[in-house]
Specification:
By secondary structure, the protein is α+β, with helices and mostly antiparallel strands. The protein has 17 helices and 20 strands. The protein is globular.
Length: about 550
């Protein structure tokens, strides 16, 4: 199989009746990291995702790879230290999708943190990362903070602790990890639902799959079945039979996006919400002109397939914005966009607040032998995957083999190729701004986008916001299993998050390109456009300007 074909969507005939070492259910960051780790160990792996890679929590996080400074409040030192070490690994594994940024933890009069305790906590944060010589915190006076961020609320400001964490594109991190799994030999199938377990003598020996694109239903066998389905965990565990409900406590987290021109902030800040004193964080995004603010943290008992911000969520976050920069005077009309996701938290002891619920993960073995991983966070996905595959191998061969995933860059992670891509793109006449956008999204795989650009005369046409060209759409379809308009706009290019219309102002040209590549009928093109526009509308607190 050639490198250009490694992430191709298999047909039912290629999978039906086959037996893999592992079948992984769930295409979020934990699932794809598990498939990648297992494939790098030489195991045969099939991953099945009912929607698209990163369609759930893994595209709706705070877009941070971080130690979780706020978890020090609840004495989760092990979790924070573990996350910090994983943060450093992610910088090496995914250099194209990780950027170290300064953060300011603001201290105001009345805050529960003292300057002494904050300094102590940040010292632990530095040392636990193992990179304290490279990146270490410093304490700032109120004057120093306002010299750096003059628009912040000055009343009661005592100072801040400056420290460092990492921003990422969570959806792209998931997609490139999935692509890395495919490059290591895993087979991946998105838009395919696991509708049952193949049980023999009460033991899970495979899964029944319904391909949601072709409509075909078929069984695939495996020596071990694993579930990494996040907030959908109980739905999968129910396939085993028996009472397993109540293990998860999903909470909803919402973020809003603002223009930096409306909310002039250049450094991410942590501060207390004026409504409930929770820690919140306005953050300048990887898109230079935008800032996002998160997050809410409320119990959620609704449909995990339909999580959207509501008026109370938006109002809460706008209150944070106006509390942070009082002169901004923001209302719903200033909101560029928003997103909502679920944290698949393991249910804590009764009486524990949502904000204090642990983010640690657990691995469970069900009555059918199904292995399930729950909890955790984006930052720790590599470690979670390692421990998950270790558990599977203990069941298969009695002991785990060596994992090399932590020493292997994910797909696109070879930044040494950047200079060559820039040089070749310049010779091909690609504008510099477009090349830089490719490198930020795809890393070394930008070379493959460039190849698409060079294959036809119309490939260089810009057909969407933020420099989206036909070449990029063609790459996403041919190389990244993009099968719907939402796949492209949300998980491949993030236009859903950063464009005020979610890209719908240009969707006729985009749908035409996708439709030609994927063979959509006229009815399917309209359905794709209508479904995506409805999704965008549900994530904007004001009507979105319709496409011309």
């Amino acid at each position: 199989m050639g490198q250009a074909d490694v992430m191709s969507r298999p047909q039912a005939g290629e999978l039906a009746g086959k037996e893999f070492d592992l079948i992984v259910i769930g295409g979020g960051i934990t699932g794809v990291a598990t498939a990648r780790d297992a494939a790098l160990r030489g195991l045969s792996v099939l991953l099945v995702e009912k929607d698209d890679f990163a369609a759930g929590t893994s595209s709706r996080s705070s877009k941070l790879i971080h130690g979780g400074l706020r978890y020090l409040e609840t004495y989760q030192f092990k979790l924070v230290a573990e996350s910090l070490r994983e943060r450093e690994r992610q910088l090496l594994m995914a250099p194209h999708l990780t950027q170290v940024r300064p953060f300011l933890y603001l201290l105001y009069k009345g805050c529960p943190e003292s300057r002494f305790l904050l300094n102590l906590g940040l010292t632990f944060y530095d040392v636990a990362s193992g990179e304290w010589r490279k990146r270490h915190h410093k304490m700032l006076s109120a004057r120093e903070v306002l010299a750096r961020e003059p628009h912040l609320r000055p009343d009661g400001l005592l100072g801040a602790g400056q420290y460092f964490d990492v921003l990422t594109d969570d959806a792209r991190l998931t997609v490139d990890t999935a692509k890395g799994a495919a490059e290591a030999g895993a087979r991946l199938l998105n838009h395919a639902a696991v509708t049952g377990l193949v049980l023999e003598a009460g033991q899970a020996k495979g899964v029944t799959i319904t391909d949601l694109i072709s409509g075909q239903v078929f069984d695939v066998r495996a020596r071990q079945v694993l579930s990494a389905t996040g907030s959908w965990t109980e739905q999968v565990r129910a396939m085993e039979g028996g009472g397993t409900a109540g293990r998860l406590r999903p909470t909803k987290g919402v973020h809003i996006v603002l223009k930096k021109s409306d909310f002039p902030l250049n450094t991410a800040v942590f501060l207390r919400s004026p409504d409930d004193n929770r820690v919140v964080w306005p953050t300048p995004s990887l898109e230079d002109d935008l800032v996002y603010i998160g997050t809410t943290d409320t119990d959620y008992s609704g449909d995990p397939d339909n999580v959207c911000p509501d008026e109370a969520d938006i109002r809460y976050l706008l209150n944070v914005a106006n509390h942070t920069i009082p002169d901004a005077h923001l209302d719903e009309s200033h909101v560029v966009g928003s997103w909502a996701g679920l944290r698949p938290l393991v249910a804590p002891a009764e009486g524990t607040s949502t904000s204090n619920t642990s983010r640690e993960h657990v691995i469970m073995t069900g009555p059918s032998g199904l292995l399930t991983i729950s909890g955790g966070k984006l930052t720790s996905s590599r470690l979670m995957a390692k421990q998950f595959v270790d558990a599977a191998e203990r069941r298969l061969v009695g002991h785990p083999t060596r994992s090399i995933a932590g020493q292997t860059p994910i797909s696109g992670g070879s930044i040494q190729a950047y200079d060559q891509v820039r040089a070749e793109a310049g010779q091909a006449g690609v504008p510099e701004a477009i090349v830089e956008k490719w490198l930020a999204r795809y890393g070394a795989n930008a070379a493959k986008v460039l190849k698409k650009w060079q294959e036809s005369a119309d490939a260089g046409e810009v057909i969407g916001p933020r420099h989206l060209t036909r070449a990029e759409v063609r790459y996403c379809v041919d190389e990244e299993m993009c099968r719907t308009l939402s796949d492209l706009m949300i998980r491949r290019t993030s236009l859903f998050f950063w464009d005020s219309t979610g890209g719908t102002s240009n969707d006729d040209a985009i749908v035409a390109e996708l439709g030609d590549l994927l063979g959509w009928s006229a009815a399917e093109r309209e359905q794709q456009k209508r479904g995506y526009r409805e999704l965008v509308e549900r994530h904007r607190p004001h009507p979105v300007r319709a496409a011309a």
